[in-house]
Design goal:
Blueprint: H1 3-59, H2 62-74, E1 79-85, E2 92-94, H3 104-107, E3 116-123, E4 126-133, E5 145-149, H4 153-165
Antiparallel strand pairs: 1-2, 1-5, 3-4, 4-5
Helix pairs in contact: 1-2, 1-4
Length: 174
């Protein structure tokens, strides 16, 4: 084989390997950025919900609390479920249709020195980023409010970007 042919083959291999490494590194960076954005959105939504729930919870107006939880879930905020423990841990108000899964009470504890906690939970619907948020930062009851955002959007977006970088669209049938 001629030297010029060897150089062309080696150059082509280097270009292909560098292209693959570039796509993979962009995918990792993009996935990290999307994860951070999802956590920020979940934290913001949890803070707003905690502020909205404070007065009705302290007043004992559980119907308003339930309406707020359902409204947050139905408004298309990527919320898979929401639940709150009333002051004194007397009652759990939630958006689960078939009853509250008791394991959630201990799945994502909010440490005493923090106002929130984020935990990735495995569920039958896939991974869910559970964000536990105290309604009153100095409260002694745990958890004051927990809201969970479903991160099912991120892998889909990462796959679309990867396919665009590779100039491949699986939906393109032409």
């Amino acid at each position: 084989m001629k030297l010029s042919k060897k150089i062309v083959i080696i150059t082509a291999l280097i270009v292909v390997v560098m292209g693959i490494l570039t796509v993979l590194s962009i995918q990792v960076v993009l996935a990290g950025a999307l994860k951070m954005q999802l956590e920020d959105k979940g934290l913001s939504l949890s803070r707003v919900m905690a502020n909205d729930l404070a007065n009705p919870l302290l007043d004992g107006d559980l119907l308003v609390v339930e309406r707020i939880l359902k409204a947050v879930q139905e408004d298309g905020h990527s919320v898979e479920y929401a639940w709150v423990v009333t002051p004194g841990a007397n009652k759990v108000i939630h958006t689960f249709g078939s009853g509250f899964p008791e394991a959630l009470l201990t799945a994502n504890p909010v440490p005493p020195d923090r106002t929130y906690s984020i935990q990735l939970l495995s569920t039958e619907k896939g991974p869910i980023r559970d964000i536990g948020m105290r309604i009153v930062a100095t409260s002694d009851y745990f958890p004051s409010s927990t809201i969970s955002a479903a991160p099912n959007l991120a892998p889909e977006i990462v796959a679309r970007v990867r396919n665009a970088l590779l100039a491949f669209d699986p939906r393109d049938k032409d």
